[in-house]
Amino acid sequence: MFIFLFIYQSYAQKEDISEKYFGIKSGIVFSALNFGIVEETLNINTGFTGGVNYRYFNQKTVGIQIELNYSSRGGQSYIEKSKLNIANDTTGNIYFNINTKYIEFPFLMHLRFGDKNMLEFHFGSYLSYVFSQNITYEENTTNYSNKHYIENKFDYGINLGIGYGVKLNKGTLDFEIRYSNGLTNIYKRNSINSSIISQNQAVIFSLYYFWNVKNFLN
Length: 218
Known about the structure:
By secondary structure, the protein is mainly β. It has helices spanning 2-12, 213-217, and strands spanning 19-34, 45-57, 62-80, 93-113, 117-137, 154-167, 171-182, 199-212. An 8-stranded antiparallel β-barrel has the order 1-2-3-4-5-6-7-8. The mean pLDDT is 83.
């Protein structure tokens, strides 16, 4: 984050154009869990995201964007029955699906090119916290109850996005596609089969509306 601020301040010295925006967003999240298991079929969870946003420019092209979001994520994996110590049932795998709800705090650099119609790019980091999770198993049994919940509820990762914005009378309407990749292992090493990584991944389609503070107050 400090690197982004340094880059932003370097650009800001060249041209002084102050713009402040407050906004809201809503979108769809397509998420999965990366366990680094090549042979595993990737299962995509579909969820929702929404939140409030602040965007600030001190020159024409480069700005910062801060968000506070709700985001539902998840994915699918499996556990070998032989590791569950269940008598007379030790062959094969049990698949489970986990659905999580996060509070997220992304901090992004925002680049825009154009006047009324703008091509936009975002890149930066995020912090998040799991406040709710639910697990369902392929087999209807109580033997696996309360197992495989996320152990590390805090997540940290990177965001990369591209979007298209249109300036309106009092603000802008933006559409964005964002890739989000967690850098934190949400499970302990080797706790899910032999996986040494367990990271969130997501592609997010979002629609934003930003109010220009100066125009809104006039």
